[in-house]
């Protein structure tokens, strides 16, 4: 049996790579990394999110790559500035609400990225 340790990266298919990079960089503080051949990824912690432009995905790819189909949960280091930052950026959000994370109870706020992917910002209670 294969034993999985952790997720290394995932892929988001997007309508506009620059707009996606701006959102994740300016709102969530992620870094942007450029690779040979024009590939782009978002970096945070020890993970990354590869970005594929709709209609120009890199093979192999998901069977049905679609912008707006992801539901992502990010654990934040502090919840103090989440609502303040979202209000300052004029980003609509819902929460905070109590949820259950992979390692126990979390408090979450939900918002949407430019492709309407659901983004959950959470902290363990």
Automatic annotation (TrEMBL):
UniProt superkingdom: Bacteria
Coiled coil ranges: none
Residue span(s) of domain VOC: 6-124
SUPFAM superfamilies attached to this UniProt entry: Glyoxalase/Bleomycin resistance protein/Dihydroxybiphenyl dioxygenase (SSF54593)
One family name in Pfam for this protein: Glyoxalase
PROSITE patterns listed in its UniProt record: VOC (PS51819)
Protein name, UniProt field: VOC domain-containing protein
Biological classification of the source: Bacteria, Bacillati, Bacillota, Bacilli, Lactobacillales
């Amino acid at each position: 049996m294969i034993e999985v340790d952790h997720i290394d990266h995932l892929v988001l298919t997007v309508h506009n790579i620059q707009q996606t990079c701006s959102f994740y960089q300016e709102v969530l503080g992620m870094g942007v990394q450029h690779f040979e051949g024009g590939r782009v990824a978002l970096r945070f912690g020890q993970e990354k999110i590869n970005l594929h432009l709709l209609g120009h995905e890199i093979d192999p790819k998901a069977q049905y790559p679609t912008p707006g189909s992801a539901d992502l949960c990010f654990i934040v280091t502090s919840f103090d500035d989440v609502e303040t930052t979202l209000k300052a950026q004029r980003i609509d959000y819902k929460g905070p609400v109590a949820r259950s994370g992979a390692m126990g109870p979390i408090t979450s706020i939900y918002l949407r990225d430019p492709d309407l992917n659901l983004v959950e910002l959470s902290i363990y209670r």
